[in-house]
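Input/output pair, single chain:
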Amino acid sequence: MIEIFGIPSQALFGQLLLGLINGSFYALLSLGLAVIFGLLNIINFTHGAQYMMGAFAAFFLLNYLGLNYWLALIVAPAIVAATGAIIERLFLRHLYHLDHLYGLLLTFGLALIIQGLFRNQFGSSGIPYPIPEALRGGQNLGFMFLPNYRAWVIVLSLTVCIATWFVIERTRLGAYLRAATENPTLVRAFGINVPRMITLTYAFGVGLAALAGVMAAPIYSVNPLMGADLIIVVFAVVVIGGMGSIMGAIVTGFMLGIVEGLTKVFFPEASNTVIFVIMVIVLLIRPAGLFGRTA
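Output:
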């Protein structure tokens, strides 16, 4: 067996794959947070609960409507995004002119309510969700075994992240979105419905979290608390990348997933804290984050 730095190659590449998978979810979730904060200035602490709702929506669609994984990838994020639009319409739009703390407290309270409702109904044990038939099995690469579904998760996450960055940073729609948050009065003068655009932006960010939940369901199972611990790590990723930075969320998410995976090989005791240690170091050196704009 080939060894690298005294570590069996299969173990090293296996943890690297695990890091890429975790990084895929970190990137997708932190991207949704970055979109919402960067365009709406709302710290959306409900993101973890909405990630969990995406997984449960896929579970309900399969077991009650017979919709398979491929349809759930489209329908489940749309359903959760619709609930996000309702939350924005009823609650968040009243907080845009207030301190960020009010939005954080409101979304934190909503997250506790949503998680509590699902936990009371389904308990805290995981519910299995099957891997789609087309993505079962894997490929033997010689130095490691690559499961097809996990490869699919990495590719889909990267594709969605790049497409989102392109739309927001390189298209007219993205320019309208940025302008609507910076100077809504001017944008209204061009006949654009700014409140509707803001609602759709929040719904889109929520939809990204739900999409991550659907992708995670076959790997981690469906659990009411599946987003509770993950959201803390994702917030750390967003802070490291730079609050509101789209590219920062993507690059930092994948990068920290890999760092976390490699840490499990070389220093397992630090694998649960390495991201937070990096966050502290980055905040001391560059408070705006790696990709954030300094004042």
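The longest strand covers residues 138-140. The chain has eleven helices and four strands.
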